[in-house]
Amino acid sequence: xxxxxxxxxxxxxxxxxxxxxxxxxxxxxxxxxxxxxxxxxxxxxxxxxxxxxxxxxxxxxxxxxxxxxxxxxxxxxxxxxxxxxxxxxxxxxxxxxxxxxxxxxxxxxxxxxxxxxxxxxxxxxxxxxxxxxxxxxxxxxxxxxxxxxxxxxxxxxxxxxxxxxxxxxxxxxxxxxxxxxxxxxxxxxxxxxxxxxxxxxxxxxxxxxxxxxxxxxxxxxxxxxx
Length: 226
Fold this sequence. Notes:
Blueprint: H1 2-12, E1 24-26, E2 29-32, E3 42-48, E4 55-67, E5 75-82, E6 87-92, E7 100-101, E8 106-116, E9 122-132, E10 135-144, E11 151-154, E12 159-161, E13 171-178, E14 187-193, E15 200-205, E16 216-218
């Protein structure tokens, strides 16, 4: 009887499933409390540009809390990374996490204009050309006042819409482009500036892409109305 009970107990134990680590993104400097994870202190990997080279290096992150400058805003954090002076972005959970130099893409703004559409709506067009090895990409947006985010398009015809978590009235700029996750494909760090708010950073990795997408966003901040 006891032997049968033991066998039944073992059979009911669910198998252990290995979970992939969640990719997290963090910036240095002064940040709002909502933009800093509770476990922010400790080991991170920095996309570091010290000495004129782009590399992934381990850093120790420290967080100091202080009162926000405006009444009623609670606390703000001062995030520091020991081990790199010129930090582009901090990441955790990225695939090939080891100290290494990073392949970098060249990029430049080729068009930026503002105007009005046929119905009098505000219209913003911005195009950045990205060269990564022998590949050529175009990061472009035609944003109307009701909102549409930027799109990454390769000359081969594949594309990814990057506007899932961008505010309809936000301005954006490409901070960095290259291979961050070590799979040999293009990744992007995009700045977003929303009206009346502090700038935010978005990380798009090729290893997070789905289907025919070129890149997918990781650790996306929620929209205000979500």
